Amino acid sequence: MPIDKFRSLRGKISLTMIIVVGLTLLCVGALSFFNAKRITTTLARSNEQMTQTSRSRSSSSMGKLTQTRLQELAYGKAELADRMFYEFEEAVCDAAVAAELLYANADSYSPRDVALPRRENDGMLALQVLYATGVDPNDEEIQEEVRLLGNLQDTLYIINYNTPSIVSNYIATESGIMVQADYISARKFDAAGNIMPLDAKDRPWYQGAANNGKLFLTPVVEDLHTRRPTVMCGVPIYCDGVFKGVAGAGMYLDNVEALVQDMDLGETGEACIVNQFGQVLFSNDQDEARTLFYPGRDLLNTHDTALTMLGEKAVNHESGVLLLDLNNTSRYVAYAPMTTTGWSVFVILSQAEVDGPTAQLQADLDRISGETATEAERYVKLAMLMLLAVLVIALIVALISSLVLSRRIVTPIQILTEKVRQIEGDNLDFHWDLETRDETQVLAHSFESLTERMKEHIKDIQVITAEKERIGTELALATKIQTAMLPSVFPAFPDRQDFDIYASMDPAREVGGDFYDFFLIDDDHLYMVIADVSGKGIPAALFMMISKVIMKNCAMTGHSAAEILRQTNQTFCSSNQAEMFVTAWVGILEISTGKITAANAGHEYPALAQDGSFVLLKDKHGFVLGGMEEAEYTECEIQLKPGDRLFLYTDGLPEATDAEYHMFGTKRMLEILNVDPNTAPEQILKNISTAVDEFVQDAEQFDDLTMLCIEYRGK
Predict the structure, then answer these.
(1) Domain end call among 210, 238, 255
(2) pTM of structure
(3) Are residues 127 and 155 in the same domain?
(4) How far is CA 394 from CA 15, 17, 213, 403, 520, in A?
């Protein structure tokens, strides 16, 4: 087209925009007037709904938050108290170790005198010797042993200095000697001024340590010299297997009581410590008329069922948070056990004090909502007036502009618009034969070219889409087939109470190469296998199905675990043109005895939980299946006791990676397993899956993830 005949649309568009703006403002104005009332009504309704929702949710959230904080506070105080007792116990153990070394190497030490108690040493840390009734202090053997024990002076002093909670620490022997380091020398004399004998063998800490042969912690007892409430600790001392005596110490409970007294729980909050017999030892409120948890209260011996239940929680060393009616008042009660003494920390807070801030919040929300609604209504009215003025001006401009609007400008655009509007569905035909000699004609020719390209592109997309749908259908069918081959109904053996088993597989693609299997060979033998085929996708899935069938057939014919692997390996090696291989762990559980006979073909080490903790069971690995025809496999035996658990997995678990390519790892796996090692197999697998998801987050799954866990319960 010649340039001199080309006419720009700049002027045309400028004129047209005036008309479009006028019409747009007219429509907007009409809609604004129509919706103004709706906006005001909707805003008021939204404020009311927001207030009601906030009232319900804030009350619920405050209750949950309070329970969480109270539980954390109870646990924190219990942990602090345990830490005091741990330090106390470690100090006594250190003294026992030093005494055993002293007895074992007596010839290496020089005699060191130990004096009797002296009144002038009162208030100072001093080492002194006391004798049991009937012991002759002048006996040569007694004196020799006293001078040997004198070498413990520095050790006992250091322990006393480094452990502020210790009141007195000592070594008591079977021969009736007691070497003691403390600050109360004057308390060792009777009213007549004579040194009182001390029969350590009659004391609970000595008898408990001697009878149990290990560390013994007494209940709260009265100190022999100060008559103050004290907890005593005793650790037996042995030399060449012969019991020599007991290392002991006493601990006042002032610091433990301070943990309760120092809690800031508002006006209605209470805190106390309850012993393993359900008796209140310490409380931040001593007034029996004001509190239900005063010191000395026996929670188990009361007519209040709620208090009795709390006493039972303490006896059973339970933890949790309850909302109870105590003395006609709803109160939250959080409780947590102390592992050292068997005591429990209780934290109590009234529900009214928790709900107080929520009620104030609701009042503030009601006030703000009302103010917001009023202010919004005023602004809507003002905006409507301003919009009305703008519309009047715009309409005047639009009427003037319409007089000079040329139909020659509007008509081509309308024709183009109509032709474009007709392009929908399967109708992609577009032809332009109108000569306008401006940008409208250029745009029309562009649409004409675009529709031709769209037709070609749609044909290509239809071909590609059909192929993708076919592949997707086949993959979906393959996924169903693969899933159907694995045991997926749980509980798998609902009639069996002597074991529980659970398994899962999460493929990296639609189908995977991992598999697991288990079934009863007979009433007393359970076959288990977990395996990982090299590669991923459909090839690995096909090889996985073949592997599962071969191994199941071998197991059903009564072969041992090693023989199952050996025959499967020979079958693979005889026709393994794809050069694929399988790692596998096979085990056969004799249910009546708990004995597992297992063999490992290059698979991950299983994790075994005995005595409440999972550890890796590093069994002997054989070569992978399909790698070497002459490979032999060695069996190992795993003896399960009731309550033991065995966890099996593929390498997709430890090798799961996050976005920065950090691996999940076996160490992290064991940590997650040991968070709750005594739970059911299904929950163990859920705990691991949750931990992997949180670790991996949005990173792409690299490998199949398969797990199996069995809990042996016995008959």
Answers:
(1) 255
(2) 0.45
(3) yes
(4) 14, 12, 101, 15, 86
